[in-house]
Amino acid sequence: MRKWSNRVFLGIVILFISFLAACSGDSGEETSSDDGDSNANGDAVELTFWKSEDVGRADYQAFMDIVEKFDEEHPDIDLQVDTTPNADYRTRLNTQAAGGQLPDVFQVWPGAELEPLVEGDAVQPIDDIVSYWTEETGLLDEEDFEDFSVDGAPYAVPANTNPTHMIFYDKDMLADAGYEEFPTTYEEFLQLIDDLNANDITPMALGNSDAWVLQSVYISTIADRFTGNDFLEGVANGERAFTDSDFVQSLEVIDELVKKEAFNEDLNTIDSSQMIDYFLQGKAAMVMDGNWGISAILENMPEDKNVGVSMIPLNDKKTMSTVAGTGVAINSELEGEKLEAAHTFLQYVYNQDLWEELIKVGRPIIANVEVPDDAELHPLQEEMLDLIAESDPAPVYDATLIPAVNDQLENELQSITVGGSTPEEAAENIQRVQESEQQ
Amino acid sequence: MHLLKKPWIIAVGVIPALTIYLIFSIVPIFISFYYSFMSWNGFSEMQFIGLANFKEVFQDSVFWVSVRNNILVVLASVFGQIPIALALALLLNRKIKGAKFFRTIGFMPVVISTVVISITWRMIYNSEYGMINNFLEAIGLGFLQQNWLGDPTWAMVAVCMTIIWQFVGLYFIIFLSALQTVPSEILEAADLDGASEWQKTIHVVLPSIWNIILISIVLCISGSLKTFDLIFVMTSGGPANSTEVMATYMYGKTFEGLRYGYGSAISVLIFVFSIALILITTKLLRRREVR
Amino acid sequence: MRESAVHYDTVSKQARKKKIVKRSTIYLILFLFTIVNAYPIFWMIMNSFKTGQEFSFDPFGLPDEWVFTNYVEAWVTANIGSYFFNSLFVGIVALLICILVGAFASYFLSRFQFRGRNMLYGFFVVGLLVPIHATLVPMFILMQKLGFLNTHLALIFPYVAFNLPITIFLLTSFMSSFPKEIEESAIMDGCGPFRIFWSIILPMSRPALATAVILNFINNWNEFSFALVLINDKALSTLPLGLANFAGEYTTNYTAQMAGLTLVLIPTILFYLIMEKQIVNGMTQGAVKG
Question: How big is chain C by its Cα radius of gyration, in Å?
Fold first, then answer.
């Protein structure tokens, strides 16, 4: 027994010593990093950069390659790159912000998610360097900055667009149902759904367990075809409402598709990657997804599958919900040489090279950059880029709405699919949250 | 129990634990309570708004749905996990072949990643190819098939089943360790009296671990009231909030809706409800103990 | 004589039959139980050997051909090589502190009568109810003030604090179930309270201690939220953070994720196996030694 207690005692002593050692070590580190400029690296300016991680994605890799190149070519700037798993980036950034300790430059989302950062004075505008892109290099136009602007001031540089609405379809399955071309009218589209159902084929794969699919991929485009481009602005200033009949009509489209059994029965229990799986497995003839869906399709598609891409034929308009991809904003506290370093960073990263690389991996970009000669795009990627080029942009709801309203919208859409709310009830519920949020 | 003449010895024994616990558990939760009187999105300046957050929570219908669901989780856990765990522990505390193997298997769900649990159980529940529906079909009970997780009336039931499954192992090892303290002399005496296995269990074993059973019930209630991970990954509260529980709702409001004050108000309520529920149960159970 | 022998024979036959029926039901139940509990692990391991394409097409079956590169990919993507030791260090140190101070506090809470004892016990139990996500932001600010951010201390202390309630709760209830005679003779012999703790109470609590150790370890090993917000330095990160790397914004690398999760599960199972032995054999050993 003696032996045992001795060992425990020894353990405690060791623990305490290592503890004290650790504590003293920490406090030392803490002070040195507080001083900031007195860097071990001598003159190099330290710049911390946070980004969410998307391992395995070609466009993420392209971006990070350029960041790395920047780091190599700028010995005077000590760039500290810190990436966070995608789903948890917001939690981490928000906690950090609440503690008043944001990194120097960091990834932000456009639109509604940028606003609280601007209002809370967490980021600073980049208007004094915008001319670098609009005039000096001519890579971007003034209006390209719109998604990252709050009250007229730009806060980040847009790189790619992110169209959130595509229909990928199996050409052979449609042909078997008697459709050589994708339907061009809504009636024909509904007829296609009936015909596929008659052949015992699920018309459209949908995985809405995360609730954003019906909102971002479906409603953002469908509603725009009824309400027009300025609807959400109108809702924000009280001139329009979700209870307006044109918006209700768009909810009725969802209702109609559900009632026509356009979707797989388990739509609420599978996620957006499983819906692509269903499509690839041939369980469904079509799948609606954002432009990002193409990477999973191309990666896992069987050789003999014939995939086409289109968008929903509805109300004679060719609008497609689109928003800028993520950007990088500058901490509002930055000044002097640190701010200069941040500006250098943005100007270096958002340049010809980045956009060419993004084109090469098939991403739709925002920039006046020609397709490079050595770009080898898959025919489906070319088809998609053409489709995007001939469409008109429409706002994406989650990038525009107040988060709580968007939350309600997503819930009501789920509710429609399970027969919980009628389109009218759903519209009323969404409007109620909108009004209480605006107070 | 005995009295000690030197109270400082007690202080020496209790203070280390108390200090760490106070600073790193109680202080943060109190800071969070302080936020519940504020309007704050994490970036802006905090603004004192009195009880407005609480008033809003009480009128928030989704919050009450989450409370109801949470009570379901508590009931399912207490009446599901505890009896199953107890039966298993009694069964596997004996010398049966392979007991060690089964004991390990029994504990497995506790250590498997929530991600794996949620993917596999989603497949088991799936309405089109899921094993439950296939099984019902095979034994001629096809009419009982459901869209388990997709139908708001069944989704919470399905989630509760998974939660029961996930944590049986936790109470199982607690009971298993409790069973080791049952004095063997009494069991031997009972054997001599010709008591059956069943009689021994009822009259000797259960009374001597009754205290641990109570403890487990309290653990079960408090654990269920904080339940988060599985639901967050498996259904994220859907469809249409039908599987929302208090902790997932609080997380959504705080980190996705950026309403720290409102989220804190919900966590205050989680805390208050939990204390109330625990007090009531311990009172009820203690009375039985006296009897 | 003959009659009774026949009688005896049928009785034993019946009894044996009954026994066999009982045995087989028990094993049938245990068998079903094993399938239900082992299936997710089985599924995880199977899919850790598939290609991404096969995972999308056939998530149920056995792999057509076994792909081992998922493990290499998992090792790199989740940074298992360096995060493993961080997790182990943080987990074990937090566990040791928690069990030590927890057992010590439990001893006084269970074996002594003093004023405010019940209140103190109740105060610890309240800690069971603290929802972890509500404390993320306050904890961050607290760690910032203490200067612990970006050090392992920022994880160790919260882990101890959040595991203390269940540890104290379990240990106190175990320790108070021991008959009070066990200390009386020790006191007669002139043993002080600390001596009694080390040489009598602790060894007797071995099963409960082992249980608490398992729970502590699992909680620490899997903890994600604090690890996410309190550590910025990649060199100090823990495993759950690495394992989150497989999920991108729109796609998840499931096969590599399953490989990573399989790798990380192995130490937990080993740890459980070691500790479980302590639970089951605990009482007899403790009694002999005590």
Answer: 26
